[in-house]
Write a structure and sequence with these properties.
Blueprint: H1 4-16, H2 22-35, E1 47-53, H3 57-67, E2 73-76, E3 88-91, H4 93-102, H5 104-113, E4 115-117, E5 119-125, E6 132-139, H6 140-147, E7 152-156, H7 157-165, E8 173-174, E9 179-184, E10 198-202, E11 215-223, H8 230-236, H9 243-248, E12 259-268, E13 281-287, E14 290-299, H10 302-305, E15 318-327, H11 337-347, H12 353-360, E16 368-371, E17 386-388, H13 391-394, H14 403-418, H15 432-468, E18 488-489
Parallel strand pairs: 1-2, 1-11, 2-8, 5-13, 6-18, 11-17
Antiparallel strand pairs: 3-7, 4-7, 5-6, 9-10, 10-11, 12-15, 12-16, 13-14, 14-15
The structure holds flavin-adenine dinucleotide.
Flavin-adenine dinucleotide binds next to helix 3, strand 3 and helix 14.
Length: 491
């Protein structure tokens, strides 16, 4: 069944284009019928100020920012539990600084849960060569110190989201709430028992049972539901040209080659690696059609063992994330985890001792495989009292590792805009909140467009560089982890 918001988008399209398709005309008829149906009734217990859809890093950060403003915020997440899924990411100092601006305590918890990254090194491994050539070395620790910013960190996905959740009020996050429909009551179309605000309904659980009860947000709804955002689809429908492209083709808008990404965690330092103690580095190597990352993600074995205590400390040694992007590799599937690991081993049989040690200490079950993707940024983020945040608005290639830092900056701006009149827009929810969300959109779209474009360009450069590398045969045999002719660069 089409939702009201979806139908309205189709009607707008129909009006702008008199030769609209049969399916659009059907949608217009469906919308006319839907107009007669009021938004579902909502119990008082299920009314809040702001409803956020999606409990990824963006949604959780937005919830923290808005709760610190004194708002009643709830986060609705489709997953039924927080699994230790995803492996490792790095977060830039300016991203953590955004988080710190509204929640220093949570920022400290996030830093403690990861590893501080002192340097970023980029090196080239020459097939058949004897050592890696270091192309760039960035003293990110010195830069952060001079700018009085938090450090750059590497952190596992589970520990990041646990640390963010630990800063929220109890019961903020509601699991097993997969968004179905949105009724924005402000336009007078869906006025009913729940009039005033935006009503959300949810899908029944996949394994049967009743759908969770509907929820009403007095102020606004924030769509932080990632790349294939349902909020974006429902709110902007056919106005959003990239809706269907994103769902079908991960790299469609950039016409980039297909790429597979493999991730795993291994002990830090990996057995056999030179040196001891913490790695404290993000090392990116270009080698024979691949980009290989080694990222210190700090202590603990929380993710592999499935532990899930919010913000909890974890015993054991540190960990190193080993990841590789195979540019130009068609989508691959493997019968068993062992075969996937064997594929990785075959790719890196001749490489630096550190890389070899990392892969040798990796258990087959720890390897995660994913694809690279992006999506054109939304040309509009806000409509009525519904807005977008994070990947839902600006999903970008991870070539510059900017997705989470940018989502944290969205959260800061959203909270600033909603509080700009001093009354959080609650005094006049039908006009002030809409204006605040329009301002948020105006302030965020230009910088996010620039960051997406930069990430896309970097992705293309990396893919082109790897395409020029010789295929097959002997691969890089770099001898030292640090290389000899490195050029230092400080941003
Ligand atoms: C291989 C790879 C490596 C990356 N590395 C980095 C890195 O090093 N640094 C970095 O900053 N970024 C990195 N990124 C990007 C980063 O992962 C994203 O930018 C970030 O996750 C965006 O956060 P988000 O909260 O906006 O969305 P997401 O993390 O996608 O979270 C969205 C949430 O919404 C939920 N959801 C979806 N639909 C619904 C629905 N209908 N109802 C309810 N809930 C729903 C999902 O279950 C999910 O929990 C990487 C991405 C990839 C693919």
């Amino acid at each position: 069944m089409r939702t009201l918001v979806e139908c309205r988008a189709r009607i707008a399209h129909h009006r702008a284009c008199p030769r609209a398709s049969k399916s659009t005309r059907r949608a217009v008829r469906a919308a006319s019928a839907a107009r007669r149906a009021p938004a579902p009734a909502v119990d008082d217990d299920n009314v809040c100020d702001v409803a956020i859809v999606g409990a990824g890093p963006g949604g959780l950060a937005a919830a923290l920012a808005l709760q610190r403003q004194g708002l009643d915020v709830r986060v609705f997440e489709q997953r039924e539990e927080f699994r230790p899924a995803g492996v490792a990411i790095f977060i830039w100092p300016h991203g953590l600084n955004a988080l710190k601006s509204f929640d220093p305590e949570t920022t400290e918890r996030v830093v403690d849960a990861g590893a501080v990254i002192d340097t970023i090194a980029i090196e080239q491994l020459q097939p058949g060569g004897t050592e890696a050539e270091e192309l760039v070395r960035i003293d990110v620790a010195g830069w952060s110190r001079r700018m009085d910013l938090p450090p750059q960190i590497g952190i596992t996905w589970a520990r990041l989201t646990n640390a963010l959740r630990a800063g929220l009020r109890p019961d903020t996050v509601r699991l097993a709430h997969r968004l179905a429909c949105i009724y924005d009551d402000d336009d007078g179309v869906a006025l009913g028992p729940s009039s005033g605000g935006v009503t959300l309904t949810f899908e029944p659980p996949r394994n049967g049972g009743d759908a969770p009860p509907p929820v009403r947000a007095r102020m606004c709804v924030v769509g932080a539901d990632g790349r294939n955002s349902r909020v974006r689809e429902l709110t902007f429908g056919e106005e959003d040209a990239s809706s269907s492209a994103a769902a079908s083709s991960p790299a469609s808008s950039a016409a980039a080659p297909e790429a597979n990404v493999y991730y795993a965690l291994s002990p830090n330092p990996p057995p056999g690696a030179n040196g001891a103690g913490s790695f404290n580095e993000l090392r990116f190597s270009l080698c024979d059609g691949s980009g290989i990352s080694l990222l210190d993600v700090g202590r603990g074995n929380l993710d592999i063992d499935g532990g899930d205590s919010p913000g909890g400390d974890s015993p054991g040694g540190g960990q190193l994330m080993f990841g590789t992007t195979r540019f130009s590799e068609p989508a691959r599937t493997f019968d068993t985890p062992e075969r996937r690991l064997a594929h990785l081993e075959s790719l890196f049989e001749n490489t630096t001792p550190l890389l070899k040690a990392a892969i040798a200490s990796t258990s087959p079950a720890a390897v995660v495989q994913t694809r690279l993707y992006e999506r054109d940024g939304a040309s509009r983020w806000s409509k009525g009292r519904v807005t977008l945040l994070g990947d839902a608005a600006h999903c970008m290639y991870p070539s510059l590792g900017l997705g989470i830092s940018t989502a944290f900056q969205d959260a800061v701006e959203l909270a600033n805009c909603l509080s700009s009149d001093g009354s959080l827009g609650l005094g006049n929810p039908n006009s002030d909140v809409r204006e605040a969300l329009a301002t948020y959109e105006r302030r965020r779209i230009p910088p996010c467009w620039a960051l997406q474009t930069g990430s896309r360009l970097m992705h293309r450069v990396l893919a082109a560089t790897s395409e020029r590398a010789p295929a097959g045969g002997e691969r890089g045999t770099g001898g030292g982890e640090r290389g000899g002719s490195g050029r230092r660069s400080e941003p």
